[in-house]
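Readers of this paper often ask what the protein records in our data store actually look like. Such a record has a labelled line for the sequence and another for the backbone structure tokens. The tokens are whole numbers drawn from a learned vocabulary of local backbone shapes. We quote a single record here, exactly as it is kept in our systems:
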Amino acid sequence: MDARLDYFASPTAGKALKHLMSAGKALKESSLPAATQELVALRVSQINGCAVCVDMHTKDAAAGGETSVRLNLVAAWREATVFTEAERAALELAEDGTRVADAAGGVGDEVWARAAAHYDDEQLTALVLLISFMNTANRLNIITRQPAGDYEPGRFH
């Protein structure tokens, strides 16, 4: 399968994506734990069906030391016992923040309170920005049918 657009060949994409990637770098450097960032990025990408992002975040997480058991259970995190309460709260916020069109009330107060119980304001800010960032990246890749499978860990870091 070939991508509909080559973002790397487009001057417009180059200008815009430079800023988007800069935002992504700032999130990576935040105090939100790296493992949590990868789990959230993976879960958002699974929900949206973004194969290239699932490929990327699975491989980056594994390269960072994440176990295959945890990576394989992200899609079923509610029933899995391998995630901390903080990670579960982040995954719940990621799901509700991604599925805003499916939930009339958006992110509920209880979901927010569970996340706020585990993360300080700076980490919550990074978490919300990461969820939004991943939804943007997913849409960019899905609309243009970016192919998955050949990502090399760390390519964009």
